[in-house]
Specification:
With 120 residues, the chain is mainly β. It is built from one helix and nine strands, in the order ββββαβββββ. Strand 7 and strand 8 form a beta hairpin.
Length: 120
């Protein structure tokens, strides 16, 4: 089975949160036709990727959580046009997202993977 996996880099200026407190609000994704609408309602930058796989182990290599990683700033919105080839009539896509938190060794790691199912 072909896997379509893409790291989305819409806002590169976002730096990861300092992990001082838990995020509030929600990160949302809405699929309207072939356009993905994103909103970061949390208090920290969000990093994300789109995949046809809902298996964290399969997409672990996508994790980028440090300053300079692609992300979406708090309270920001973004849109992305998804290619028709990504959609199979029987299978959804998944938007995986996470916050970057300090790893205790001077770097960053994802806090935890969350997934939103997207159906055309």
């Amino acid at each position: 089975m072909r896997r379509y996996v893409a790291a989305l880099a819409l806002t590169l200026a976002a730096a990861c949160g300092d992990g001082a407190g838990p995020p509030s609000g929600e990160f949302s994704a809405t699929l309207r036709g072939d356009t993905l609408l994103l909103h970061n309602g949390t208090t920290q930058p969000v990093h994300y990727a789109v995949s046809d796989v809902d298996d964290p182990d399969t997409i672990l290599w996508l994790y980028c959580a440090g300053p300079g990683c692609p992300g979406l700033d708090p309270a920001a919105d973004a849109t992305m046009l998804l290619p028709d080839a990504w959609f199979a009539p029987y299978a959804p896509l998944f938007l995986h997202w996470w916050h970057g938190v300090p790893d205790g060794q001077g770097g960053f790691r994802p806090d935890r993977l969350r997934s939103i199912e997207l159906r055309p």
